[in-house]
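Why do we care about 3D structure at all? Because function follows from shape, and shape follows, mostly, from sequence. That is the central idea of this module. The next example makes it concrete: a single protein chain, its amino acid sequence, and then its structure expressed as tokens.
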Amino acid sequence: MLFNSTDAPPDYLGARGDGDRRKGERRSQPRSGPDRRRGDRRRATLRNTLLAAAAVALPHQVKPESLNPAWLRPPVPVVSTRIESFVGIPANHAYDRFIQEASTRYRVDATLIRSVMQTESAFDALAVSRAGAMGLMQLMPEVAVELGVEDPFDPRQNVMGGVKYLRRLLDLYNGNVPLALASYNAGATNVAQYGGVPPFPETQNYVKQITRLVASSRRARTE
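And the structure:
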């Protein structure tokens, strides 16, 4: 059976006539007080905004536990360790492995490498000089770049780069260690200008100190 909306009374469809109180009286006159429904909507909007902000800032507090039950979360492995004892390594032997590797690769005496390192940085891998030299072998920034040292404060990179440079100087002076050391400290230009170890007190003391350390180390091994 077809239903004709014209057969239903106006009130059945939710329509009110001209005499209806809500339409004829209440809405036709201005309201003296605040709009209660507008205030409710404002409060609801503010409440929803605060709840949304809290959900973003503190998701672990507002997230329903029913959506993430504990039995669905994978177990987290727990590893516990305990240090009962340790053996300290003296600074002059802390980088023996890198020294030996560089000595083998570039054919430079390990004792000489260790003596240079001791004089340059006192085995401090993070040492920086006033001139800007860095690391164990005190590489200048431009020298480090030339030698392919990406991180001058990485002990292995620094040692390998410094010994590679020392090898170049030894080859330049046909194995003459004092001249190679003087050039390492003062630069090849100064060595060439003075035809030997430059008369700089720092450079002369540098060469003497390393030469003394090498001799002392070799003497200690034979005793």
